[in-house]
Every structure is written in C-alpha cells, then in structure tokens.
Amino acid sequence: MFIFDAHLDLSMNAMEWNRDLRLPVEQLNAREKGLTDKPDRAKATVSLPELRKGNIGIVVATQIGRYVAPDNHLPGWHSPQQAWAQTQGQVSWYKAMEDEGEMTQITDWAGLEKHLALWNDGTPNDQKPVGYILSLEGADSIVTIDHVERAYNYGLRAIGPAHYGPGRYAQGTDATGFMGKAGQDLLKEMERLNIILDATHLCDDSFWEAMDHFNGPVWASHNLCRTLVNHNRQFSDDQIRELISRGAVIGGALDAWMMVPNWVRGVSTPEGMNCNLDVLIDHLDHICQIAGNADHIGIGTDLDGAFGREQCPYDLETIADLQNIPGLLAKRGYSEEDIKKVMHGNFLRFLKNAWK
C-alpha cells in the first residue's frame, strides 16, 4: 500500500549524522560500526532505497536549526543567523538529491497529483524519486519575519514554531510559556502565505495561544497521546479534540519513549518494554475513539530522528516495515477504506483542502 510519512529528518541525517541516504540501510550501518559519537550509530532504519522498498512515495522532510540562549543547555546554535545557515545547508542537500533524481519537491496540489500519478504508473519504485514536502521543525532559524517568505520561495510549506525547550517564537517540549508578539507575528505571516502550522512540540500554553491566533491549516506531523503516556510532549484529549475540530491530521510517531510509559533513555529496550508496532495502533485508535472516525490519523514516524533501532518498535528493522501496519489495523477491525486513510488518504485530503 502507498504510504505518506509526515515526518522524517532526512537532511539532518545526511548533514549531521553524515549518512549518504542514497545507500541501503545495511551499508549505512556497516560504515558506522564501532562509532560511539551518537547512541544510534549503526542502528539506522531510513534511507531512500528503503523508502522505495516500503512504497513510501511522499514524505514531509524537515529542516532544523535550534538557537540556544546562554542559559539554554540544549544543543544548538549561538545565533539565529547560524541556525539559518544550518537550515540552508540542509536545503542544499535536498536540492542535490533532486539533481540526482533521488527526490522531487512538492509545493502545490498540481505537483502532488503529478507525483501520485508517477508512483501509480506500474513501473518499479526503484526508478522513481521520493516526493518531499519541506517543513521547518522549530522556527528559531527564522532570523526575521521577512525570512518566512524567503523560505516559502524555496519551497517551505509547513512550520512547527517550537522544538525542545524555549524558542524564539514559541515554547516547546519540556518548556512552559506563551508565544508572545514574535510568535503571533510569525503565525500571521504563515497564514498570509498559507503555510501549514505544525502543532507538534508546542507546550500547552503555546499550543492554545497558537489555536487562538492562527486561522490557516493545522496538522501535527508526529505526535501521540498523553492519556497513554503521560508527558507534556504528548497531546491531551482536549488538545486532540481541538485539532479534530480544526480538520487536522495527527501523524503517529515511532519513538519508543513516546509509545510506552516509563521508558528510561539508554536503559530501556524495545523488547523489554514490549514496544512494537501494535502499540502505535493503541495511540491511533485512542484518537479515533475521540473523533468517532478514522479521518484524523496518519503516519509520521520520526524514524532516525536522533534515535535508531535501540528506541523504536522491536518488530521494525527498517522503515519499509511500515507495510505491516495495514495488517495490524485490519486485526483491530479497521476497514480497507479506513486503512487507506491512515496510510496516505487523510494527509492527501488535508493537502488538497489546504492547497486547492
């Protein structure tokens, strides 16, 4: 089945993890054997060949560059200008992949329809570029509001104003506080340009402020449920209801600490915590029970988002194993129509509504 993945940090993996994503995953991991600079070395699950193998023809692909103030101990850049430069290097990587015929950028509905036709023409997937919609995870690198239009002009179509910690435009995971004027100005410019608001990572205060000030399209690219795993990174049921009322689609993430309660980083294992793909269905089904339908869930894996097989479902070797999700949904009683919605249909419908 065709799959739309709403969140992959491809350029981060290429530029900061130094992975040549044109290669098979096994080659990436073989080259990293023995490296210890990052906990997920030799445990990658994502590459362009694996996307094609898994019939994952469209992804929302990110830029990311965090600014950190002197009292912020998270990793990041010491000025917004440095963070902007980091994201521009990431854009250059995507453009290089386009030049190689490995990827193709999708910026409007006509381009999306053309890409879907290509992926449904019966030719082998290994002869097709992976389509990507460009998203910015955390808006710290937007030096001034004028930079939003500059980014739109090179293809940026979604922005998540916050990531982890305090941000320049919003407060993110493990932080508290409101967006303020800078964040509201960002939302106003996003609305003018019809840039999608990604509600993922917004702390509760900033989430509700964003809902009050933004009237454009809203989705949540990679999120799960606070009722099942009690952490501020997750959405409360009230937040899920708000997103549903806005016509949002929530992409289910595959980061184990978000999937199962009481995960201890560096200690817990997927097998030990019984974290498998079926746990993802628990979270997706919880959203469906709130919505009363399957119209607001999708896939937003975040695979290789600074973690690898040590912190994802134990029954997933590579991203191509997303093809096992339809069978798991069927076992829960989901119809073929609803399964197609989850795997691609809901996000495609969302984009049609946002872009036409």
Characterize the biggest β-sheet.
9 strands, parallel
Strand tally, please? 9
* CATH-scheme architecture: Alpha-Beta Barrel
The CATH topology assignment is TIM Barrel
The CATH class label is Alpha Beta
The succession of helices and strands, N to C, reads EHHHEHEHEHEHEHEHEHHEHH
List the total number of helices. Answer: 13
Task: Report how far the terminal alpha carbons are from each other.
Answer: 25 Å
CATH H-level superfamily: Metal-dependent hydrolases
Secondary structural class: alpha/beta
What share of the residues does DSSP label as strand, in percent?
A: 5-15%
Work out the oligomeric state of the chains in this entry.
single chain
Helical content (DSSP H or I, runs of 4+): 25-40%
Q: How confident is the prediction overall: mean pLDDT? A: 98
Choose one word for the global shape. globular
Spans of at least 5 consecutive residues with low confidence: none
Number of domains: 1
Radius of gyration (CA) equals 19 Å
